[in-house]
């Protein structure tokens, strides 16, 4: 890290996280002369690489209560989500052309479903309640004999809501309907035991848990229909994802998940205390602040805090905080000078003014109480400026 970064505060861990030093150390041999082999080669270098690849698969599987054969490495969660959605429904198209998903999916699932919708698939976009929860009764009402797949995000990447996936999964299992879960924001933060959780497919990504970018995995339950592959070639990853494996990345993913799993209990308690403090203090210190997602931090992804500060505009608020050395993000995006409201906050039933004023603070390993105190020092004045401008 350059010295200048010491005065900067990074509160955007839901976008990406820095590489854990121990993850980098674990990866280095595979970027050097010893570990560069191709896991498909028969010679010494190939065998060494194959061993590391399968060890990483065992580690990732063990951290999630899965079997090694159930883990397919991909280039990240976007690919895992696409493989789950496109691959499963293509493999299941004889059953019917109906998919159930939610209005608050990550773009990797939402846009895959939209593409299928354009091709004539019938998509049910489930609503959520005011805190962002999908209701089991809505899931029940949406299921039809021709439903090929249900895809629901576990912990929302914007508002942090954790879905009741145990109950939803149990119902779907009973009905014989396949269930995919995007767990990018919860893997490594919440205990996930796939030997007990009724989920058929699960996506995860390394760079959201202090691992490298460009690597992730799709869990495919043993016995669940095999998705149709999107990458055709040499037949790597059980024919499901051709292409020479990103071995350094995969080793990094395994190390990152192992480290996250080791101190998950402690770190989630620490993050939730910080999160709870920030929510309470912002609600008090910033007039007009609107909390998005559950007030109970036990129902939020550890570290996620999401507010709207109307009449501020998300991107402008982000830039003002950046001027103060605080890195956050906004789900609302500026397209051709018009602020687009966050579709996630709109799904909560909130007006455009609130959905345009979004700021996500995502806390992580480096976050301290002093960091958050600094946020609370500068935030009220920034918001006040927008409020003054609006009343002129
Ligand atoms: C970041 C993210 C993704 C995409 O993961 P990549 O590895 O960056 O492709 C998918 N879903 C959620 C919920 C995410 O937060």
Overview of the structural elements:
- The protein is α/β, with parallel strands linked by helices.
- The protein has two domains: 242 residues, 3-Layer(aba) Sandwich (Aspartate Aminotransferase, domain 2); 129 residues, Aspartate Aminotransferase, domain 1 (Alpha-Beta Complex).
- It contains twelve helices and 14 strands.
- The strands form four sheets. A seven-stranded mixed sheet has the order 2-8-7-6-5-3-4, sandwiched between helices.
- Helix 4 links the parallel strand 3 and strand 4.
- Helix 1 runs antiparallel to helix 7 and helix 3 packs parallel to helix 4.
- The radius of gyration is 21 Å and the shape is globular.
- It starts with 8 loop residues before the first strand and ends with a helix.
The total number of structural domains is 2
Number of strands: 14
- Using the coordinates shown, work out and report the CATH topology of the largest domain: Aspartate Aminotransferase, domain 2
Give the CA-based shape.
globular
Low-confidence runs? none
- The amount of helix comes to 25-40%
Please describe the biggest sheet, giving its number of strands, its sense, and whether it closes into a barrel. Answer: 7 strands, mixed
Structural class: alpha/beta
> What is the spatial order of strands in the main beta sheet?
2-8-7-6-5-3-4
Distance between the termini: 43 Å
Which ions and ligands are bound to the chains?
A: pyridoxal-5'-phosphate
How would you state the average pLDDT, rounded? 95
One letter per element, helices H and strands E, the order comes to EHHEHEHEHEHEEEHHEEHEEEHHEH
CA-based gyration radius: 21 Å
**What is the number of helices?**
12
Q: What top-tier CATH class of the largest domain fits best?
A: Alpha Beta
Assembly form of the protein: single chain
Say which CATH homologous superfamily of the largest domain is assigned. Type I PLP-dependent aspartate aminotransferase-like (Major domain)
- What fraction strand? 5-15%
Give the second-level CATH assignment, the architecture of the largest domain: 3-Layer(aba) Sandwich
């Amino acid at each position: 890290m350059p010295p200048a970064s010491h005065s900067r505060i990074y509160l955007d861990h839901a976008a990406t996280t820095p590489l854990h030093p121990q993850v980098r150390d674990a990866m280095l041999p595979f970027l050097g002369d010893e570990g560069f082999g191709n896991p498909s080669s028969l010679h010494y270098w190939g065998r060494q690489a194959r061993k590391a690849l399968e060890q990483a698969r065992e580690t990732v599987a063990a951290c999630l209560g899965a079997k090694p054969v159930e883990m397919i490495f991909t280039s990240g969660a976007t690919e895992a989500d696409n493989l789950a959605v496109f691959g499963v429904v293509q493999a299941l198209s004889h059953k019917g052309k109906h998919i159930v998903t939610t209005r608050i999916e990550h773009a990797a699932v939402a846009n895959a479903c939209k593409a299928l919708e354009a091709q004539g698939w019938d998509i049910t976009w489930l609503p959520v309640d005011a805190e962002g929860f999908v209701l089991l009764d809505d899931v029940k009402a949406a299921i039809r004999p021709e439903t090929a797949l249900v895809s629901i995000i576990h912990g929302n990447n914007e508002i942090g809501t954790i879905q009741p996936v145990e109950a939803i999964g149990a119902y779907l299992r009973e009905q014989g309907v396949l269930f995919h879960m995007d767990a990018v924001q919860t893997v490594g933060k919440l205990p996930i035991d796939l030997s007990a959780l009724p989920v058929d497919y699960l996506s995860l990504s390394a760079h959201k848990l202090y691992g490298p970018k460009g690597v992730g995995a799709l869990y495919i339950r043993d016995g669940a229909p095999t998705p149709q592959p999107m990458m055709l070639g040499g037949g790597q990853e059980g024919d499901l994802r051709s292409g020479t494996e990103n071995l350094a990345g995969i080793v990094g993913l395994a190390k990152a998940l192992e480290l996250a799993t080791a101190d998950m209990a402690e770190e989630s308690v620490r993050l939730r205390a910080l999160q709870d403090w920030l929510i309470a203090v912002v609600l008090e210190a910033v007039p007009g602040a609107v909390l998005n997602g559950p007030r109970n931090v036990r129902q939020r992804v550890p570290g996620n805090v999401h507010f709207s500060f109307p009449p501020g505009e998300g991107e402008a608020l982000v830039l003002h905080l950046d001027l103060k050395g605080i890195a956050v993000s906004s789900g609302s995006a500026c397209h051709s000078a018009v602020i687009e409201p966050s579709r996630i906050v709109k799904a909560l039933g909130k007006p455009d003014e609130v959905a345009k004023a979004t700021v996500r603070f995502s806390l992580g390993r480096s976050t301290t109480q002093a960091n958050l105190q600094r946020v609370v020092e500068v935030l009220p004045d920034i918001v006040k400026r927008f409020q003054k401008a609006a009343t002129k």
